[in-house]
Design brief:
heterodimer, A: Uridine Diphospho-n-acetylenolpyruvylglucosamine Reductase, domain 2, Enolase-like, domain 1, 3 domains, 5-stranded antiparallel sheet, 17 helices, B: Aldehyde Oxidoreductase, domain 4, Aldehyde Oxidoreductase, domain 4, 8-stranded mixed sheet, binds flavin-adenine dinucleotide, binds FE2/S2 (inorganic) cluster
Chain lengths: ~475, ~775
């Protein structure tokens, strides 16, 4: 068992043995490294001022992803390169193309958001060879700027691809980094201790189950995008953390004949291309879950285990008829997802159990099958749903053969509209029957009023979404709305 | 052959800190290297909107590890006072708390987390009192933070009776959090004796200095306040920073160590003031053509628990309730409502946006009632140039250029063609409708409190020819330092790179006004120009006596000075002057001419001039969900003669997007107990890069120098363009109205959240 973590800060190696395991990378950079270029704007992953980039070795090659340093714990850096805004320009002060174009396009005013933008753009720069507006926006909606109005930043995002390089992060430089990263990769499980805290990163599933059995109160740490907030927002201490990152069984993604199986530790970013192909509606709503920084870390397993009534994966997965696999040393069990949620933030997981896999039937690929997910929020991107409705329909000869309607934000858990479904099953899929169903649906839930929306708004819109689903599945217009990515 | 200097006036040079911004080297208050015995502070905030403090028990907090000082209102050696206009506004609650979030106790400890833990150990006993949360609550109980104020022109009461049509209405205009990316922060460093150095993220260092001195009970010459830059201000750092600075300074005195107080985002949003929310009621009389004969409008502003700047803000709201329109008979009445919520404060536009949205909504109502294109109604009511130009505060509009701007923009945006297209689209689309709207802006420039219109600069030329400049203005991203340096470069005809603007510092320029009211460049640019001209004159005088030439023969150009036949490098001349014992240091002082306002009579000339602009926006609205998208915005804006077009465009676009956020997605929500529920970016949504118009076309009005003698005939640009976003709100309203019956005026509130949209369509009842 290892008891130290090793990582790079820009090009410099670091080795830490005793470190507060709840310390965020943002705090670490500012207070330990004295790198103050990375800013805190919110400490909750929502503003992007703290954006840094992780450089990692995958099959011998470097991959880069932007993350929020404010909710990322230092032990998670193990084996990675942490790239900060201080690391982009050359030692001689020559600016990186991203920086150069930001200067030339007047992309900064007060400059406080700028380091974060620069880092998000740097990740985009490394992943693309040119910019198109939609994908650039996708990459930048996790960064808030209150000064510029964004136009010059988007311009810079286009211009950066035609700026000359500065020698940093070119092939030669990357080659050196690859060598350095190779030296610090470790196969062995990790166990850090610091005063009353412990941090485990097991590499085998059995080990993980044993740990969870031994420490039933421990927090399983996937992306940490929910857990991080407990520390930064609620001032909680998480004494025992068990990271899922190195357990390869949790990161598999397989497309079988009848179902798609997602490992619980698969991030949104990793699932993107399969979901796009298989369950487009799900993919679309996930593109609006958090920001790139969040999706680079957040997992579908974490979203389900967190059991928020407004988590965005649950309605879609319930409507798709998904099941979850649950594992402990006692054995494995499988549950329909809708039965996984017991009550407000309460799941069927026992203290020694972990969520391992999500099984999604490939039914939607059948003819006359329709699937849509509608997320309603005040802002299109990086906002929590006021409500989220997912609809699955299979028609046979114009009649409803099968229908599943699931909502988030309408009750204490993600929930199916069973009465409405029952009414619709077997009837003709027409505006008339849908309008009757809408009346039922409007009264099926008793949602809350809060700052995201009133109960009345939620009721009316839940029914209107059924209407929208009808319009999109019965007319030539496949989309009725004002907002979608494509 | 005259080569030009680099970085003079009208060149689009980049922000003076741009390279530092992109490399992470720009130092903000929280980034200043800490001392080895640095302490960090945390605050206990009131959980109640209104309560009497019965008892504060600090015994457990004192026992917490790392704690070095704890203060309450009882520990203040001077006066517990941060009111910018009226006395009686405290930094730490004394006896009662008047809003949920009011600071009561401050703790300094070795680390932020230790300070927070100690705060959690403080026990306070409260006697909860009834609280007024909404404007309606406040109006019903007649609670006010100051006296009401009325502007009057003509006789609206009798004129209303003569009008062919009279309609009335009422709507809510929400507030707005500044959401500067850098939260409020102050860092106090105790010096020897009573000396106190405060690094503060403030737009108003002199006021921080004043309040800290008062608070500690020491003269102002003991207190020095410095700010190099802010990570955004937008008005939120005009009065609010004094609260943090006073607390940090006293903790520093008590602990005898440097203390930093940095608010996390939640505390920042809960504890500090925002844009005022308004309830606006109107009654308007007009003829068949839509010409307004009389207007009565009541603006009830939700001020929060104390006045802060509310009276000036409400004044400015009233001053902009005419916008570009001539109102022959008007009674505009402002009520500064007291509520048990955080005291609202300055925010870009300073009441102007709320006033202006009120009259724009009236114009829209009139047009819908008459089933006319709202543009026609607006144009018909514009101020004249020779006549019909008296405002409700009795200033004559002398520089009206809104008709030209309107014509240009309607053409370039193809408004009328697109109006037809929108109608056609809407006729064939059941649930998705388009909306199109035009709205003009006329914004008055100057502090309406006349004495504030003064500024100073300090300038040295060193013997190597490099210029050091310091002025009272603060840099918050608006590019002030860059513009003022460009002005100085232009005066001396030397490259911009030779001029350094240093951190704003109360020890260098005293008694300054806030960098606010868009006046930064107008005032500090002038002060710096005056200082430069004084030094330049000394150099000319020196050259005249040294080289026996006439003053006209001394010409500064492209880093050189031509003296008669000779050409001397600027630095060479400076060095010679230095050896001849010429003083190369001076101050410059500027005060804005012409302005005055007699508040008793509600008459005067509060503004030196007006800045104009207009916007056409088009939106798409989903009638099933209330969601929308801004498709296109065309903007034409007046900045006089631009000192730096890139910076001005940056201000226009940034303000517009900020205004659009205010009117669409940015919703402040207090629950019935007075707790703000939207106090972080997870719950309070400001626009992202996807929320700006798909197609955004911004132009600066060409060849339109300021008629007044401002610095290089430029115009202020910080605030006016925020109100261009009224067109976005009006476009949403336009789309909403196509879900309603013709002639109906939908009752849309601001912000037009998806829920507000569905409500206005009538789907929620
Ligand atoms: C800025 C921001 C924006 C966000 N936006 C959205 C949004 O739009 N929609 C939305 O739905 N969510 C959103 N979230 C919430 C969050 O990103 C998601 O819930 C995410 O999927 C959580 O995954 P994670 O891997 O980060 O979970 P973690 O934080 O690592 O874990 C979450 C919880 O699940 C438990 N857990 C994780 N994995 C397992 C497992 N395999 N078995 C058992 N328990 C497990 C953890 O112990 C913890 O209790 C947002 C969060 C942030 C910070
Ligand atoms: S500080 Fe705002 S996202 Fe991290
Ligand atoms: S430049 Fe100020 S927040 Fe972006």
């Amino acid at each position: 068992m290892r008891n130290t973590i090793r990582f790079l800060v820009n090009d410099e190696p670091r080795e830490l043995r005793s470190i507060d395991t709840n310390l965020t990378v943002l705090q670490y950079l500012r207070s330990v490294e004295k790198y103050c270029g990375t800013k805190e704007g919110c400490a909750e992953g929502d503003c992007g001022a703290c954006t840094v980039v992780l450089g990692e070795l995958r099959q011998g090659k470097m991959v880069y992803r932007a993350i929020n340093a404010c909710i990322y714990f230092v032990p998670m850096l193990d084996g990675k390169q942490l790239i900060t805004v201080e690391g982009l320009a050359s030692n001689e002060g020559q600016l990186h193309p991203v920086q150069k174009s930001m200067v030339e396009c007047h992309g900064s005013q007060c400059g406080y958001c700028t380091p974060g933008f620069v880092m998000s753009m740097f990740a985009y720069y490394k992943q693309n060879t040119e910019a198109d507006r939609t994908s650039l926006e996708n990459a930048l909606v996790g960064n808030l700027c209150r000064c510029t109005g964004y136009r010059p930043i988007l311009d810079a995002g286009k211009q950066m691809f035609s700026e000359p390089g500065c020698g940093r992060f070119d092939d030669r430089h990357e080659h050196r980094i690859v060598q350095k990263l190779k030296e610090i990769q470790a196969e062995e499980s990790l166990h850090l201790e610091h005063s009353d805290q412990q941090f485990f990163a097991p590499t085998k599933l059995e080990e993980l189950l044993e740990l969870k059995n031994r420490f039933p109160e421990a927090h399983l740490l996937a992306g940490g995008t929910d857990l991080g907030l407990l520390v930064t927002k609620l001032n909680r201490r998480l004494p025992v953390l068990i990271s899922l990152e190195k357990v390869s069984e949790l990161h598999t993604l397989s497309v079988l004949d009848s179902e798609v199986i997602l490992g619980a530790g698969v991030t949104y970013a990793e699932a993107e291309s399969v979901l796009k192909q298989e369950f487009f509606g799900f993919y679309e709503v996930l593109l609006r879950l958090g920001s790139v920084q969040i999706r680079n870390l957040g997992t579908i397993g974490g979203n389900l285990a967190n059991a928020s009534p407004i988590g965005d994966s649950a309605p879609a997965l319930i409507a798709l008829g998904a099941e979850v696999s649950i594992l402990s040393m006692r054995g494995e069990r499988k549950l329909p997802l809708q039965d996984f949620f017991l009550d407000y933030r309460k799941t069927a997981l026992q203290p020694d159990e972990i969520l391992t896999r999500i099984h999604i039937p490939r039914q939607v690929q059948e003819t006359d099958s329709f699937f849509r997910v509608y997320k309603i929020s005040k802002r299109f991107d990086q906002d929590i749903s006021t409500l989220c409705g997912a609809f699955y329909l299979r028609k046979v000869k114009g009649r409803v053969e099968e229908i599943r309607i699931a909502f988030g934000g309408m009750a204490a858990t993600p929930k199916r509209a069973l009465q409405t479904e029952k009414f619709l099953r077997g009837v003709e899929w027409s505006e008339k029957t849908v309008e009757l169903a809408m009346e039922l649906l409007r009264e099926e839930f008793t949602p809350l009023s809060d700052f995201r929306g009133s109960a009345q708004y939620r009721k009316v819109v839940s029914a209107n979404l059924l209407h929208k689903f009808f319009l999109e599945t019965s007319s030539s217009e496949s989309r009725v709305g004002v907002l979608h990515h494509a | 052959m005259h080569k030009k200097i680099s970085g003079g006036v009208s060149e689009s040079v980049v922000h003076d800190s741009a390279i530092r911004h992109v490399t992470g080297q720009a130092v903000y208050t929280d980034d200043i290297a800490e001392s080895y015995h640095q302490l960090h502070a945390a605050l206990l905030l009131s959980p109640h909107a209104h309560a009497r403090i019965v008892k504060i028990d600090l015994s457990k907090a004192w026992k917490c590890p790392g704690v070095e000082a704890i203060i309450t209102a009882d520990d203040i050696p001077g006066v517990n006072e941060v009111g910018p206009i009226f006395p009686g506004e405290t930094a730490l609650a004394s006896g009662v708390v008047q809003y949920a979030g009011e600071p009561i106790v401050a703790v300094a400890a070795k680390s932020e987390s230790e300070a927070k833990r100690a705060v959690a150990a403080i026990e306070v006993e409260y006697e909860v009192l009834p609280a007024a949360i909404s404007i309606e609550d406040s109006l019903a109980q007649g609670l006010k933070v100051a006296a009401e104020h009325t502007l009057k022109v003509g006789d609206s009461q009798s004129a209303l009776k003569q009008c062919e049509h009279v309609v009335s209405g009422e709507f809510h205009i929400g507030g707005q959090d500044h959401f500067y990316l850098e939260g409020q922060v102050a860092s106090a460093v105790l010096g020897e004796g009573q000396e106190m150095l405060v690094y503060s993220s403030t737009q108003h260092p002199s006021e921080v200095q004043k309040m800290v001195a008062q608070f500690l009970g020491i003269p102002r010459n003991q207190v020095r306040v410095e700010v190099r830059r802010m990570g955004g201000g937008f008005g939120g750092k005009e009065t609010q920073p004094a609260i943090l600075a006073c607390i940090a300074a006293l903790l520093s005195v008590k602990s005898q160590k440097p203390v930093k107080l940095r608010l996390n985002r939640d505390d920042d949003m809960i504890m500090t003031g925002k844009r005022h929310h308004f309830l606006t009621r109107y009654k308007v009389g007009f003829d068949n053509e839509g010409r307004i004969g009389a207007l009565e409008m009541v603006l009830a502003a939700g001020c929060g628990q104390v006045a802060d700047l509310s009276t000036s803000i409400l004044d400015r709201a009233l001053f902009h309730s005419d916008n570009c329109y001539f109102l022959p008979n008007a009674t505009l009445h402002g009520i500064p409502c007291k509520t048990n919520t955080v005291s609202n404060t300055a925010f870009r536009g300073f009441g102007g946006p709320q006033g202006m949205l009120g009259i724009e909504n009236v114009m829209d109502h009139v047009a819908r009632y008459l089933k006319m294109d709202p543009v026609q109604v607006r144009i018909r009511n514009y101020y004249g140039t020779a006549d019909k130009n008296l405002t409700p505060y009795h200033q004559t509009v002398e520089d009206n250029i809104i008709p030209e701007i309107t014509e240009q923009l309607l053409n370039s945006s193809q408004y009328f063609l697109r109006r037809k297209e929108v109608e056609e689209f809407n006729a064939s689309s059941r649930f998705i409708k388009k909306g199109l709207a035009f709205s003009p802006v006329k914004f008055g420039i100057s502090f309406t409190t006349s004495f504030l219109n003064q500024a100073g600069a300090l300038m040295h030329i060193y013997a190597d020819g490099s210029v050091y400049l310091n002025h009272g203005g603060t840099e918050m991203g608006q590019g002030l330092f860059t513009k003022v340096a460009q002005i100085v470069a232009e005066e001396f005809q030397i490259d911009l790179s030779r001029i350094r603007v240093s951190a704003t510092d109360t020890a260098k320029v005293p008694n300054t006004s806030a960098t606010a009211a868009s006046s930064g460049t107008d005032m500090n640019g002038k002060a710096a120009q005056i200082a430069a001209r004084i030094l330049k004159q000394r150099l000319i005088d020196f050259a005249v006596s040294e080289f026996k030439v006439k003053p006209e023969e001394v010409i500064f150009h492209n880093n050189r000075v031509t003296v008669g036949e000779r050409r001397i490098g600027f630095s060479e001349l400076v060095n010679m002057a230095h050896h001849a014992r010429v003083s190369l240091s001076t101050t410059g002082f500027y005060k804005t001419p012409k302005i005055f306002y007699d508040r008793g009579k509600a008459k005067g000339r509060p503004f030196l001039y007006f800045a104009y602009g207009a916007c056409v926006s088009e939106v798409l609205v989903d009638g099933l969900t209330g969601e929308y998208r801004i498709l296109r915005s065309d903007i034409l804006h007046d900045v006089g003669t631009s000192i730096n077009e890139a910076i001005d465009i940056g201000q226009i676009e940034g303000a517009f997007v900020q205004g659009a956020g205010w009117l669409t997605m940015e919703e402040l929500y207090w629950d019935s107990k007075g707790h703000l529920k939207t106090h972080a970016p997870s719950t309070y949504k400001i626009p992202t890069c996807r929320d700006i118009p798909l197609d955004l076309r911004v132009e600066i009005l060409k060849d339109s120098p300021n008629q007044e003698d401002t610095v290089y005939r430029s115009k202020a640009v910080g605030e006016p363009p925020l109100m261009l976003a009224n067109a976005v709100w009006l476009a949403i309203k336009d789309a909403v109205s196509s879900f309603c019956a013709p002639g109906e005026n939908p009752n849309l509130n601001a912000p037009a959240t998806p829920e507000a949209v569905l409500k206005a369509i009538g789907s929620l009842s």
